Amino acid sequence: MRVAVVGQGIVGISSALAIAKRFPKAAITVFGDRPFESTCSYGPAGLFRLDHFENRKWAKTSFERFAEIEKEFPGSETGVKLISGHIQSDNKATLEGQEKNMADIVYNFRWLTDREIQLMFPNPSK
Questions:
Q1: How far apart are alpha carbons 9 and 29 in whole angstroms?
Q2: Counting beta carbons within 10 angstroms of the beta carbon of residue 101, is it exposed (0 to 12), middle (13 to 18) or buried (19 or more)?
Q3: Using one digit for the tens of pLDDT, what is the confidence trace for 83-116?
Q4: I need a labelling partner for 115 at 20 to 30 A (CA). Which of 11, 35, 51, 126 fits?
Q5: Residue 80: what pLDDT?
């Protein structure tokens, strides 16, 4: 079997990897129009976030797969690296929506303490 994957960002590479695992004898060629370092997956556009509850099934599957890739291969080769971060908003409902959408999918989802908010963010909204 010969397979062509168009796109060498995280979606293309993880798709090629999934095909290789399912069909070990497949000849897989990945095509891209630029070096990996110039793709969105290499930079900040690769942050994982789930804004729509109806997409939870796919987000859970994707996060679990990205976690496997991050453990199995160097981030410098895959573009997948586990980092922590914060979702910041002046709208509490937005933050509560993020909690509902992905608290049980990602690692260590939690609310910041008042002290952390004061120390990390200048002039936080009340």
A1: 14
A2: buried
A3: 888 888 888 999 999 999 999 999 999 999 989 9
A4: 51
A5: 80
Rounded to whole angstroms, the Cα distance separating 98 from 109 reads 10
**What is the Cα–Cα distance from 97 to 85, expressed in whole angstroms?**
17
Q: Which two tokens stand for residue 126?
A: 């009340």
Residues contacting 117, CB < 8 A, separation 6+: 124
**Residue 116 token pair:** 């952390």
For the record, the structure tokens of 29 come out as 């060629």
Question: Rounded to whole angstroms, what are the CA distances from 96 to 43, 57, 92, 93, 126?
Answer: 27, 19, 6, 5, 15
Amino acid at 89: S
